[in-house]
Every structure is written in C-alpha cells, then in structure tokens.
C-alpha cells in the first residue's frame, strides 16, 4: 500500500534570537507559526506519518505555554489518526528532565519518542513499515549510532530517524555522527536526518537519506533552510523538498573602497529589499574620503527588511600623507617613500592613483592587516 511521510527537524521552538534585537520575539513566534504550517501540510498532503529528527525544542527548559501549544498541534494529528515519531536531539535530549517525559507531550497517544541511545524499532502495521530510531541523551556517548546496524524486520519498508552529524573530520563530543558507508549498508529504505539546518541529500547505495533542514530560519546565516522533505513510498522511494518557511537570509560583503557615497550603498541595499529578509551587511577594507555613515543609512532602510545586521570592520583612511611624518625604517615610511619616488614623473591621473594607494596602504598598515 503506498503511503506518504513528512520529514522535518531542527524547529527549535523557544529559540531566543538575541542577535535580532527587538525582532527576536517576532521570529520566536514565527517558529511556532511555521511549525503549525508544517502540521497543516501533513493534513493537506494526506501524509500518513510525521517524522521529527530532533530539536523540536531549543531546550528542555521552554515554557509550559509553548509545550501546550506544540502538543495541541500534534494533538490535531492524533484526531486524524496520524502517528508522529520523534528522535530527541542535542537541544532537547531525552532524560528525566526531558519535555517528552512528562505531560502534555507524554500524554499524546499518537506520539512515539525514542528513549534510548541504542537504535530500536517501532512497528507500524497499518503502513507495513518499521521506524528505527534513537535518542540523544546526556552525557552523549554513542557517537556512531549506525555502526554495525542493519535493519532487520518483517515490514515491507524500513525507515530510520536520527539526529546526527554527517562525516565531520572534527567529531565533537556532543553529537552523533553517520557516514556514507554506514548509510550504504544500513538496509533502510529512507533515513530521516536532523542536526544540520540546511536541506541536503546524502542518499547512498539503496538508501535514500536526507537532512530536511530547519523549516524556518533559526540562525542568521546562509543555508538552504525553510523546507521539509515529503517522501512517497510506492514501489520505490521518492523524496522532494517543499518550501514552508517565511524568513530568508542574505549576506552582502562590500569593500569599503567601493562605498564612495551614500547613494552607492543605498542602491546595493534597495535591490535586496524584502520585509521578510534578514540581511547581514559586512564591510571590509579601507574607507575612502566621503565614506557615509553606515548606521544612519541602515536606519533609514530598516523598515524595508525584517532585520539588518551590520558588521563594519573597515579602517579609516588618512586624508593626507607625508613620508616625513614616518620614520624611514618603519613599514609605513618605506612604503610611502617607494610610492613618493613614482610621483615625480607621473601624469595627473597617475598621481591621483598613487596618492590613493598611499592613503589605502597607510590604512591597512594601521590596522595590522599587512
């Protein structure tokens, strides 16, 4: 019998978003709204099983109100006889203090939460499938949960559910890890992964394996977030990502040398204006004469974006340069005297270029960049 699965992870309900300032509470509320949209998509697409691969919550210390609202959303699926399986993650690990160990989540009859570091099976006869999963638990010990594992059940379909990293060379102590070789030999038809916030395909051998990524922006950084993965089982396994998020993120890196006027910077930002976009403006280099007040300009455009984050590490450029002001044996002195020699026979346009190079060079030297 064909059936559908919706795979999501890393929702991080309750995340604080301190870096977004006054917009933090708004984005925190958006996480819950987007999770509601995910549950709505389950119903709309007539999904038969919801898999959550860890970090549904940003911590085990979230408010009672948030737990009740999340439980109410999952309860809507209970009323429609749709089962939900969760693999607790690094932010919401299972244990005595886990949000999953007590009401209201512990009272949901349609919710199965894996409670062991060892991979265990949950049989779903109505779908002729078995879901294999485990839980992140403190202290984290089982770093390679798929090591030596091969799915062995009487079900037609075998699904995996793990919150783990993927083949990192610098394996951290606080995370599980899966490898391509382990995916290829695990015997699963589909492996639902969480922990990485961008959607990515790690299918290997006969196993389809995906990170769904976060369905909504959790961190102000690049990544293919804002998706869930919809998986269809009908003779084979077909997986496709579906956009559900609201916010987007873009980082713009500019050279201060290229920002010679306010209109130049305004043009760059206005091209990207979007009330649901978080934009990070990173400015590097040496400021030319006439460099505008970045903070003031960003303030004028703040209502055109959800949030603007500015990282300005540019250095001031001196208006005048005189080699005599610097010791002859200093780096600045040597640099300026070399360029000064070139001024003698230079044309007017060449002189302007050389003088600009002298100013920029001093700026870099003052900042310890060379």
Q: Assign the CATH topology of the largest domain.
A: Purple Acid Phosphatase, chain A, domain 2
CATH class of the largest domain: Alpha Beta
How many whole angstroms does the radius of gyration measure? 27 Å
Please provide the count of β strands. 17
Helix count, DSSP H or I runs of 4 or more residues: 7
Distance between the termini: 66 Å
- Helix percentage range: 10-25%
The shape is elongated
Strand order of the largest sheet: 4-3-2-1-13-14
The tally of structural domains comes to 3
Indicate the proportion of strand residues. Answer: 15-25%
Based on the coordinates given, report the CATH architecture of the largest domain.
Answer: 4-Layer Sandwich
Largest sheet features: 6 strands, mixed
Describe this structure in words.
Helix 1 (24-44) packs parallel to helix 2 (64-78), helix 4 packs parallel to helix 5 (294-301) and helix 6 (331-343) runs antiparallel to helix 7 (348-366). 36% of the residues are buried. The strands form 4 sheets. This protein has a 6-stranded mixed sheet, with helices on one face. The chain has helices at 24-44, 64-78, 180-185, 262-270, 294-301, 331-343, 348-366, and strands at 3-8, 49-52, 84-86, 111-113, 120-124, 129-133, 157-163, 165-166, 177-178, 190-194, 200-201, 208-211, 227-234, 236-243, 248-255, 274-284, 305-312. It has 3 domains: 3-243, 4-Layer Sandwich (Purple Acid Phosphatase, chain A, domain 2); 248-312, no CATH class; 323-366. The protein is 25% helix and 25% strand. The chain is an alpha/beta fold and 370 residues long. It is elongated and about 90 Å long. The chain is built from 7 helices and 17 strands.
């Amino acid at each position: 019998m064909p059936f559908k699965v919706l795979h999501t992870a890393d929702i991080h309900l309750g995340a604080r978003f301190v870096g977004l300032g006054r917009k933090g509470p708004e984005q925190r509320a958006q996480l819950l709204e987007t999770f509601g949209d995910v549950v709505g998509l389950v119903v709309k697409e007539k999904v038969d099983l919801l898999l959550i691969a860890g970090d549904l919550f940003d911590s085990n210390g979230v408010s009672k109100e948030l737990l009740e609202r999340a439980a109410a959303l999952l309860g809507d699926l209970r009323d429609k006889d749709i089962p939900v399986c969760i693999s607790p993650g690094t932010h919401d690990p299972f244990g005595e203090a886990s949000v999953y160990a007590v009401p209201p989540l512990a009272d949901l009859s349609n919710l199965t939460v894996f409670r062991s570091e060892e991979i265990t099976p949950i049989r779903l006869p109505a779908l002729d499938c078995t879901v294999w999963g485990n839980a992140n638990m403190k202290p984290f010990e089982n770093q390679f949960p798929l090591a030596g594992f091969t799915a062995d059940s009487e079900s037609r379909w075998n699904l995996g559910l793990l919150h783990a990293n993927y083949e990192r060379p610098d394996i951290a102590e606080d995370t599980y890890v899966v490898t391509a070789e382990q995916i290829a030999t695990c015997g699963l038809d589909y492996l639902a992964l969480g922990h990485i916030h961008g959607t990515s395909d790690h299918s290997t051998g006969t196993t389809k394996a995906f990170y769904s990524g976060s369905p909504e922006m959790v961190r102000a950084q690049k990544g293919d977030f804002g998706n869930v993965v919809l998986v269809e089982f009908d003779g084979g396994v077909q997986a496709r990502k579906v956009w559900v998020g609201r916010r987007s993120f873009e980082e713009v890196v500019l050279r201060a040398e290229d920002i010679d006027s306010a209109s130049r910077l305004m043009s760059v930002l206005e091209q990207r204006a979007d009330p649901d976009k978080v934009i990070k403006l990173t400015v590097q280099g040496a400021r030319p004469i006439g460099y505008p007040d970045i903070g003031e300009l960003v303030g004028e455009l703040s209502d055109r974006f959800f949030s603007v984050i500015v990282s300005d590490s540019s250095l001031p450029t001196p208006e005048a340069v005189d080699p005599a002001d610097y010791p002859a044996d200093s780096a600045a002195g040597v640099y300026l005297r070399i360029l000064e020699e070139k001024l003698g026979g230079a044309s007017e346009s060449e002189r302007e270029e050389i003088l600009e190079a002298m100013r920029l060079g001093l700026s870099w030297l003052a900042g310890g960049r060379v």
